[in-house]
């Protein structure tokens, strides 16, 4: 059992006969009335995101998890396949268990949360940022960099990211995986 003071991003909880992972949280202490915690939780089985408010001191049932490093192998259309780096066993997960699957490229090392009760994989955590190559975008216009204007660009994984106007095809960019946003251009 954990209380609301133990809530943090990535914590897995058993709630309403399902397992949820905390995506965002905010401790609120209003001037009048009791404190509470606002949370945004994602179901690890269905991928559904819900907002919930817990009063301060509320007891919650946590799920004991272990983290393991897995290498992303491939996507067969329905499942994403991963290989454990320690013992080379393979697992497959539905897209709902992944936070931002469009930013994963083959060979990427990710962290998989595994439920210790039944050894089932719960969710996949990508690194904080990934470096991807731009495969398609409109050409940049010289001198058009003074504003914060952006344009859509397709990266090597097939995902679309909004990038500044000076980014061209073939450039490598760093993408923040939590939000799926452009961070910076990477020089070789």
UniProtKB/TrEMBL annotation:
<dbReference type="Pfam" id="PF08207">
    <property type="entry name" value="EFP_N"/>
</dbReference>
<dbReference type="InterPro" id="IPR001059">
    <property type="entry name" value="Transl_elong_P/YeiP_cen"/>
</dbReference>
<dbReference type="Pfam" id="PF01132">
    <property type="entry name" value="EFP"/>
</dbReference>
<comment type="pathway">
    <text>Protein biosynthesis; polypeptide chain elongation.</text>
</comment>
<feature type="domain" description="Translation elongation factor P/YeiP central">
    <location>
        <begin position="67"/>
        <end position="122"/>
    </location>
</feature>
<dbReference type="InterPro" id="IPR013185">
    <property type="entry name" value="Transl_elong_KOW-like"/>
</dbReference>
<dbReference type="InterPro" id="IPR008991">
    <property type="entry name" value="Translation_prot_SH3-like_sf"/>
</dbReference>
<dbReference type="InterPro" id="IPR014722">
    <property type="entry name" value="Rib_uL2_dom2"/>
</dbReference>
<keyword id="KW-0648">Protein biosynthesis</keyword>
<dbReference type="GO" id="GO:0003746">
    <property type="term" value="F:translation elongation factor activity"/>
</dbReference>
<dbReference type="GO" id="GO:0043043">
    <property type="term" value="P:peptide biosynthetic process"/>
</dbReference>
<dbReference type="InterPro" id="IPR011768">
    <property type="entry name" value="Transl_elongation_fac_P"/>
</dbReference>
<comment type="similarity">
    <text>Belongs to the elongation factor P family.</text>
</comment>
<dbReference type="Pfam" id="PF09285">
    <property type="entry name" value="Elong-fact-P_C"/>
</dbReference>
<dbReference type="InterPro" id="IPR013852">
    <property type="entry name" value="Transl_elong_P/YeiP_CS"/>
</dbReference>
<feature type="domain" description="Elongation factor P C-terminal">
    <location>
        <begin position="130"/>
        <end position="185"/>
    </location>
</feature>
<dbReference type="InterPro" id="IPR015365">
    <property type="entry name" value="Elong-fact-P_C"/>
</dbReference>
<protein>
    <recommendedName>
        <fullName>Elongation factor P</fullName>
    </recommendedName>
</protein>
<dbReference type="InterPro" id="IPR020599">
    <property type="entry name" value="Transl_elong_fac_P/YeiP"/>
</dbReference>
<dbReference type="InterPro" id="IPR012340">
    <property type="entry name" value="NA-bd_OB-fold"/>
</dbReference>
<dbReference type="GO" id="GO:0005829">
    <property type="term" value="C:cytosol"/>
</dbReference>
<keyword id="KW-0251">Elongation factor</keyword>
<comment type="function">
    <text>Involved in peptide bond synthesis. Stimulates efficient translation and peptide-bond synthesis on native or reconstituted 70S ribosomes in vitro. Probably functions indirectly by altering the affinity of the ribosome for aminoacyl-tRNA, thus increasing their reactivity as acceptors for peptidyl transferase.</text>
</comment>
<keyword id="KW-0963">Cytoplasm</keyword>
């Amino acid at each position: 059992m954990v209380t609301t003071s133990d809530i943090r991003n990535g914590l897995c909880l058993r709630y309403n006969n399902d397992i949820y992972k905390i995506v965002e949280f905010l401790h609120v202490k209003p001037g009048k009335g009791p404190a509470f915690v606002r949370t945004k939780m994602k179901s690890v089985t269905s991928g559904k995101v819900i907002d919930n408010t817990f009063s301060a001191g509320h007891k919650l049932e946590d799920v004991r998890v272990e983290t393991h490093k897995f290498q992303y192998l491939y996507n067969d259309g329905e499942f994403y396949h991963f290989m454990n780096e320690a013992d080379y066993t393979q697992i497959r997960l539905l897209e709902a268990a992944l936070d931002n699957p469009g930013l994963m490229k083959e060979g990427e090392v990710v962290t998989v949360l595994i439920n210790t009760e039944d050894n089932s994989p719960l969710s996949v955590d990508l690194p904080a940022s990934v470096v991807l190559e731009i495969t398609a975008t409109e050409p940049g216009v010289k001198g058009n960099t003074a504003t914060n204007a952006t344009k859509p660009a397709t990266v090597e994984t097939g995902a679309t990211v909004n990038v500044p106007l000076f980014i061209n095809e073939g450039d490598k960019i760093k993408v923040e995986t939590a939000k799926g946003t452009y961070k910076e251009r990477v020089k070789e």
